[in-house]
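fyi for ur records
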Amino acid sequence: MSQIALVTLVVRDYDKAVAFYRDALGFTVAEDTDRGDGSRWVVVRPRGAAPGTGLLLARAKDEAQGAAVGAQTGGRVGFFLHTEDFAADHARMRAAGVRFLEEPRHEAYGSVAVFEDLYGNRWDLLQPRTA
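which gave:
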């Protein structure tokens, strides 16, 4: 085994989720295929990410899945988005309406700020410190 290819993120609405990840976070849509049963296979990934890696956006199919939307990691930061230009990406994301839960911090491991996606899942925007 050489990599984790996809991580599923349960969402309420495909189009709203795609718009958030594409427009607010700057991700690309790697695939958006109608499966013929009302569901879609939607994969998004950060620009420059290796092919085959990304988020599978899966619309909740029932009440139990719907209850997990936005709380898939129990309120903890569950996703880590690395950047090579923290200040520029932070400013761009704020201008796009991304909700940051804190001001940027500069830690021993790098620059970081926690933000929420459109459903409340917590992410770190992180520029790791170089050696």
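The helical segments are 14-24, 63-68, 86-95. thats all i got for now
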